[in-house]
Amino acid sequence: METTIPRRRRARVFSLAAVIALVALLLPATAAVVLGHTPKATLQCTNDVPTLQVDLTSYTESLTNLVSVTIDGVNDPTYFNYDFGSTFDHTWLLSPATSDHTATVVVLAGDDPTNQYGFSPTFNLSVPPCQIKADPKLPTTPSAGGWLGTMLNDSATVTGGNNPIGTVTFSLYGPGTSCDSDAIYTQQVSLDEGTVAATTSPGFEALAPGTYEWTATYSGDDYNNPASSGCGEEAVVISRMPTCQALGTCPSPSPSPLPSALPSPSVSPSPSPSPQIVSPSPSPQGSVEAATSKPRVTPPPTSSMGGTAGGPSNGIWFVLLALAGLIGSILLLTPAPVQARRRR
Predict the structure, then answer these.
(1) 83 and 168 share one domain
(2) Count of CB atoms situated within 10 Å of the CB of 223
(3) 331 occurs within a structural domain
(4) Mean pLDDT across 167-173
(5) How high is the pLDDT of residue 171?
């Protein structure tokens, strides 16, 4: 006797099978929601620093869960195919902050190897520069020139930079050449962190006369652009030593006398002018002439013996008058001769 399933029962069986199949399909997703799988990765500027953050939580610890990180095209040697268990949380601070960066984070969950439910995502991330490079200056100071055989050196300081590191390259060009030619001396000096000055040592011995030119170039680093001194800004002149100086036969200059305190000049009375014979002149009587520094009165010309005294001519007249008076007195006092023999 053939048994048959009623239609209603058959419909119930099909409905139950469909429910079971649906539950089987939704079970992983439901389990994921219950477990809270939360893959997350970001690459952004944090306090002016490029920062990569990867946070994977609530994965099934009993399964193999892997993460691989690649930064700027280079696989991270520690976190590539790394088995993190149920939780992974790590941060990378990328350098330099003045460049753009890329990162790739690949997650492989043991309960979703094909990323059917979003538990095994691949993050392709990028960030632009978080900082702008500084533009430092490079002032330089060459050593002084001198005679042949002088040691030439140069020094430079990186100013206006952002904690500069790197190197400073010094180049020296000889007489008759240019900065486009080959340098006759070069030296590279490293800048340690916190040091901004560099100096050549022991330098170059100048054995030819002429003008030497220094240049200095700062290499720059991740946070500072390169800088250099210009050609012609550091000229040094070397001369030949005079033969007598080389032989030590040049006369030494006599030392200048030291200034001594001079006594203050004493004021002496002006000597009185000696008497002078003044010749007659057509100037009116009593006129004042500036024959010396002091004015004097020129006596009028004498035309008779009755002139006024005051000069040598007047003295002669006085002498003559005195002689005349003496003679007259003698004559008056001399008795007249007696007329003898009047009786005869």
Answers:
(1) no
(2) 20
(3) no
(4) 97
(5) 97
Q: Supply the range of the domain harboring residue 28.
A: 14-127
**DSSP, residue by residue, 28-70:** HHHHHHHHT-EEEEEEEEETTEEEEEEEEES--TTS--EEEEE
Residue 253 has pLDDT above 60, yes or no: yes
CA pair distance 226, 137, nearest whole angstrom: 9
CA 221 → CA 119, 130, 167, 187, 218, distances in Å? 41, 16, 9, 19, 9
Domain finish residue from 127, 155, 189:
127
DSSP state of 317: H
Total domains in the chain come to 2
Q: Which residues pair with 210 in a beta bridge?
A: 238
CA dist 238 and 147 (Å) reads: 5
66 close to 107: Cβ distance less than 8 angstroms = yes
Identify whether 327 is part of a domain. no
Q: Which CATH number do you get for residue 211? A: 2.60.40.1930
Same domain, 122 and 152: no
Asked if 25 and 97 sit in the same domain, the reply is yes
CA 122 – CA 195 distance, rounded (Å): 44
Nearest partner of 283 among 268, 296, 301, 271, judged by Cα: 301
- List of residues 6+ apart from 148 with CB closer than 8 A: 206, 207, 208, 209, 238, 239, 240, 241
Q: Which amino acid is at 279?
A: S
Position 334 pLDDT exceeds 90: no
**CB 131: neighbour CB atoms within 10 A?**
16
Instruction: Determine the pLDDT at residue 102.
Output: 97
Residue 188 domain-assigned (yes or no): yes
DSSP symbol at 113: T
What's the CA gap between 327 and 73, in Å, rounded?
Answer: 153
Rounded CA-CA distance 52/68 in Å is 13
Instruction: Tell me how many degrees the CA angle 93-95-98 measures, rounded to the nearest 5.
Output: 125
Are 118 and 146 found together in one domain? no
Whether residues 120 and 159 share a domain: the answer is no
Q: In angstroms, rounded to a whole number, what is the distance separating the alpha carbons of residues 221 and 163?
A: 9
- Which residue, 218, 243, 268, sits at the end of a domain? 243
